[in-house]
Amino acid sequence: MTTYFDNSQSVTASQVYKSTCATAAHSPSSVQPVNCPIEVCFSDEAQAQLAYFLRLLKQASQQSRWIMFIGEEALIDKQLLKGAGIDTNKVLLLKNKKGISDEALMAKALSSGNCSAVIATGRIDTFEREDIRHAAESSASYAFVINREFKNKVTLH
Fold this sequence. Notes:
By secondary structure, this protein is of the alpha/beta class.
């Protein structure tokens, strides 16, 4: 299986989703390795990002692994998840972080191999770390970073 975006620091949910469309016919229920964090931005200008993000989570939920949200600020509305076809029985929320950074928790969750996707909130540049990149690639898992402060950049699809 080929790793996509080898030289990227980070990518958007739409870039990842579009790249998986080409390989979905071969293995529709598998996560395509992406060895960099995937930025998801929610704003009026970037609503398409939410749709792509939910489609990727749906793919991830078809595996027999968890989808982990790190902190309540990362959690997406349960009805929205269900409406997108995501198995909410496979969704975990990590609330008590015990002083560990979200970046360290993401790396640890990815490296466990038990999660098909790990989602946190924050600035994408703080998640562009070698341990996260390596863990996402080796576990064939998605590492999503939700940027809820996204205002200025408009992505055309």
